[in-house]
Specification:
There is one protein chain. The protein is α/β, with parallel strands linked by helices. It is 21% helix and 32% strand. The strands form four sheets. Strands 11-10-9-8-12-13-16 form a seven-stranded mixed sheet, sandwiched between helices. A hairpin with a 3-residue loop joins strand 4 and strand 5. The longest helix has 13 residues. 38% of the residues are buried. It binds flavin-adenine dinucleotide and FE2/S2 (inorganic) cluster.
Amino acid sequence: MMRKMYKPILVKIDEKTKQTEDEYLLRINHEIEHEQGQFLQLSILGFGEAPISICSYSEEYVELLIRNVGNVTNALCSLKKGDLIGIRGPYGRGYPIKLFKGDSIIMIGGGCGIAPMRSAIEYIERNREDFLDVHLFFGFKNPKEILFKEDMEKWREKFNLNLIVDKGDKKWKGNVGFVTDVLERADIDNKRKVVFICGPPAMIKFVIEILEKKGFNHDQIFISYERQMKCGVGICGHCMIHGKYVCKDGPVFRYDEVKGSNE
Ligand SMILES: Cc1cc2nc3c(=O)[nH]c(=O)nc-3n(C[C@H](O)[C@H](O)[C@H](O)COP(=O)(O)OP(=O)(O)OC[C@H]3O[C@@H](n4cnc5c(N)ncnc54)[C@H](O)[C@@H]3O)c2cc1C
Ligand code: FES
């Protein structure tokens, strides 16, 4: 079992799966005790470090979804099965899902923002009797960009899944538009519910406005924020929002703790 650590250790990539043109899922066969929504600092010699959310919930392995956007993530996406990477962590505060036993859970995500929520979904799957209904509102640019396609099929059977694309193609029969359009029409109230959100800042802003109209209080809403990071452990100050460290006090915040920082 691996515990929180400040120096990276080298681990082997045990599986690598292509998800989309720019995104890969890496599996490392290490047990890492973590909360849903926490992240690891991944490093490659000569390239640097990047914070990446743990997107699985397992005693045997961790999975990490990497979107290729720059220097480090490009190097991570180029790795092969058997290659070594450095990892340190897990860091930060995740979604406090265990506090909400007996409640309904709503998750709203866009693009690779769904990665940290996948860990929470896998937790719920393994503890299904602890929660009431589960509503998932997940948006992607187009059908080719949909992540975790096999999981989506499974989640459709188990939960109330709303999969939405900005733009469909010939085969697409599902929702077209924005996550916010579908959320606005959804018949959900705020009774015994908690909401987890992760996605682009513009989506988060409109989602909150809709939730407010539906009667949700700010202490029912938890958001995972992304900020550029260096140390990952509350020393360098790179990741601050509203006097809080995203790496240490977050990345998941209850909305009333950081209200205003997204605008
Ligand atoms: C808590 C947390 C969890 C994350 N989880 C994931 C994940 O599960 N999967 C994933 O693919 N990515 C995730 N990210 C984003 C990832 O860390 C960045 O994309 C990565 O650090 C970029 O590094 P790079 O060297 O590849 O890009 P760079 O070459 O440094 O930059 C490429 C572009 O991305 C911007 N950028 C760099 N870092 C960030 C950042 N943290 N947030 C927003 N923009 C940034 C730069 O300004 C630049 O425009 C997460 C970030 C945080 C803070
Ligand atoms: S990344 Fe250094 S304080 Fe958060």
